[in-house]
Design brief:
single chain, 323 residues, 67% helix, mainly alpha
Length: 323
């Protein structure tokens, strides 16, 4: 579907605002669910049920005085905070969240999403290396090892989806599922690996070694403060939101569901419900998993997850060849 040219800037702006609000909402759901698991109340006072607390926390951090360590590379320090937010907002425009036709789409846009995540990871590395203190250096070294393994695993899950569908275009992958069945039925192993890899690449427990507060303060985030910390945290929440939406688009059929062909408004509703289900699943694992204290165990987990992906790829290729 082609949109009227004069409306495109307004639609881009509206989509980016919607994505930012969705990211704050996802943070609230995550914090609230985690609090329930740990028998706490969680965000409560700001807005109905505390739903505005993430937004207020972001604004509060923006107004805080920023302390920058001596020897910091100021240019990289500032750039790191902005690169992730801008790149991830751009990536959301390729997600068919409001309808089967995203605002931006081209043949092979799956590669663009892969590039978005690589650049986002790069912005975290820039943030960690721009400040040279023992805590940030140790945290950044752990971050490099963990990201290089799990970001690759996470993106590999989508490449196997491409093998089955035969199209590298996100909207085509969603339409394929709309006309047949969600790919989680054909590729359950890929879905499991995608969920676990997402926890690791976002440094959620039990994979939070790069910023383990008990060992290395906050690791690569130790020296971040004020507005830089606000944007890095926002970038991390946007990363969680975009990654969750991608899992829904690639494995759960996007917003497809009953009556979506006759009532298009139901498409984003179904999409959001599925995304919240995946988010709660991620938070449950985060809440009940035992924290890993060894640097080597998360690395060793990459091997069985890779094996699952290889098995999945063999099954998919065999199915396409009619074996």
């Amino acid at each position: 579907m082609s949109y009227p040219l004069p409306l495109i800037p307004l639609m881009v702006l509206a989509s980016i605002i919607a994505f930012l609000l969705l990211s704050f909402f996802f943070e609230w759901v995550e914090r609230k669910t985690l609090a329930r698991i740990q028998k706490r109340i969680g965000p409560y006072f700001t807005g109905p049920g505390g739903v505005l607390q993430p937004l207020v926390d972001f604004l509060k951090l923006l107004s805080k005085k920023e302390l920058i360590s001596e020897g910091t590379d100021i240019l990289l320090y500032r750039l790191s905070a902005l690169i992730g937010v801008i790149i991830l907002a751009y990536g959301f425009l390729y997600i068919p969240f409001f309808s089967t036709d995203p605002l931006l789409s081209f043949e092979g846009d799956l590669l663009m999403i892969i590039l978005v995540f690589i650049l986002t990871s790069f912005s975290y590395l820039i943030a960690g290396t721009s400040v040279r203190t023992p805590f940030t250096l140790v945290g950044t070294s752990r971050l490099i090892v963990q990201y290089s393994l799990y970001e690759l695993l996470y993106l590999s899950c989508f490449v196997i989806v491409f093998f089955q569908v035969g199209s590298p275009t996100i909207s085509e992958i969603v339409r394929y599922q709309e006309q047949s069945m969600p790919l989680i039925i054909f590729q359950p192993l890929g879905f499991i690996v995608a969920v676990l890899s997402l926890l690791a690449k976002l440094e959620r427990p039990p994979f939070d070694l790069p910023h383990a507060k008990q060992e290395i303060a906050a690791g690569w985030m130790s020296e971040l403060s004020g507005r830089t910390l606000a944007f890095i945290r926002l970038s991390n929440n946007m990363d969680l939101t975009l990654s969750t939406l991608l899992i829904v688009a690639f494995f759960l059929g996007g917003g497809s569901g009953p009556m979506t062909s006759t009532t298009p408004i139901l498409w984003p509703v179904y999409f959001l419900i599925k995304a919240l289900a995946v988010l709660i699943l991620l938070t449950l694992i985060e809440g009940i998993a035992v924290r890993v204290r060894s640097m080597y165990l998360p690395m060793r987990l990459a091997l069985p997850l890779s094996s699952l992906l290889v098995v999945q790829a063999i099954l998919v290729i065999g199915w396409r060849m009619g074996l």
